[in-house]
Amino acid sequence: MTKQRTGGRILVDQLVIQGCDRIFTVPGESFLAVLDALHDTPEIQTIICRQEGGVTYMACADGTLTGRPGVAFVTRGPGATNASIGVHVAMQDSQPMILFIGDVDRGMRDREGFQEVDFTAMFTPLAKWATRIDDPSRIPEYVARAYSVAMSGRPGPVVIALPEDMLIEVAEAVDRPRVDRPAQAPDAGAMETFASLISSAQSPVAIIGGAGWNNDAARDFAEFAAAHGIPVAAGFRRQDAIANDCPVWAGNLGYGPNPKLTDRIKSADLILAVGARLGEATTDSYTLVTPDHPGKTLIHVHPDPNELGHVYRADLAICAGMPEFARAAAAMPKPKEPKPAGAEAHAEWKAWNTPLPFDTRVDLGMCVAAMRDVLPADTIICNGAGNFSGWWHRYWSHPKHGTQLAPTAGAMGYGPPAAVAAALRHPERSVVALAGDGDFMMNGQELATAVQYGCDMLVLVIDNGAYGTIRMHQEREYPTRVSGTTLHNPDFAALARAYGGWAETVEATADFAPALRRALEHKGLRLLHLKTDVERISAGTTISVLRGASR
User: Fold this and answer.
1) How far apart are CA 9 and CA 167, in angstroms?
2) What is the average pLDDT score of the chain?
3) What pLDDT is stored for residue 550 in this prediction?
4) Is the pLDDT of residue 257 over 70?
5) What is the pLDDT of residue 115?
6) N or C: which end of the chain has fewer CB within 10 A?
7) DSSP notation for 69-117
């Protein structure tokens, strides 16, 4: 199409061509021309959010679920700075997202105009690509490139500034066709070496995660690993990369992993890292697997050549997409019998994954067990940052890809916005948002968005009256000297009802399962306010134990 159109109309037309069916926004006067074009574009649903951090969290989560960039629109200055947290998460989580920012007129630049910020300078360190569009006739070029950059190699966020006057300028533009992620098959010679290293290894362990996984990759890699008997561990908060009922699934790494799993990795003679960057959280500050890993062979598979060799010395580096690599691995000749280590590691995970009662006011392990009894297997679990998430990381089981939305960046406030995005994307599935009390207050305003768009989602607010993770570190480093971590909280159940949801408060373990059943009898927004004891500071320890260890 080359007819005369406004920049706003050209931009929205490109989003339709690229398959965008939903955007997330807090509106601003700087991109009214885009909002006007969206008015006549039924193919795209406009989700009006309550704060720009929620906007970009939703877009990041949507991109995680679809594999194509989640799309966000915010205004200049305050809107963009609020939105930056979601860009940071999308980058560290390797998830595709595009953030469009309404900007000052082209003629106003470099005068410190109203809410003016140099967005290219601001976002270049945070994003895969940050740019601005000054010529409306080039919008198709920029949008197509943005989709390509966001999805190719290591997926991530793209940020595009849109001068307000550019969006209302009329121009001719040639539409660009839909962009898809390029196929990345592994090199045949590298796969021959890979097969040789795998067959000769005595105690291999796989660490999987990162980006680019889909149902096909999950199925094929599980087939490969099970056939060879290779224990499979997930990187931090990537537990849905393959189905956890895979007979060689060994559990998750990150904070508070199974000690038997970490022992396996320490004693492994070969580490197969597939998709995972082997970041700080997954490797316990680069100590579980060191960058030079003496005595171990490292095979590193990643879709981005810039990641291979970036931190870790790889004995074999394979640049490939997850689906293509997993397909090639599954097609390799299979041994007569799998190694027994895979089944042994799976049994160890099952024991670790089974919660036992603990004497505390609200035992979160038993709460997870109650959820496992009644929620569908394909429930999407969404959480932000905090020790509260550790109970679900340990005790919840992910039966398929696409059931975990959790920021590897460790960002607070992610759970409720991610749950809104998940409920909109998959209205047929159960969606649960997990949030600590401090975590929830970062983006709890998005409950209004959930109600406005009829999202069917359950929110659990775990309230121990503290910034629990920081309190845990405080007790380790400065025991008994509590400072800056205590919270005085509202009645979260009353707050949810004020937004228009159904809610109850739970103050004893025995009350949780009945309250959960009552919640599941309702539709729409439901919230359970769990009042827990700060003494049980994490799934693995208590404040008393931490204080005792410091003596």
Assistant:
1) 8
2) 95
3) 64
4) yes
5) 76
6) C
7) -EEEEE-TTHHHHHHHHHHHHHHHTT--EEEEEEE--GGGTTS--TT--
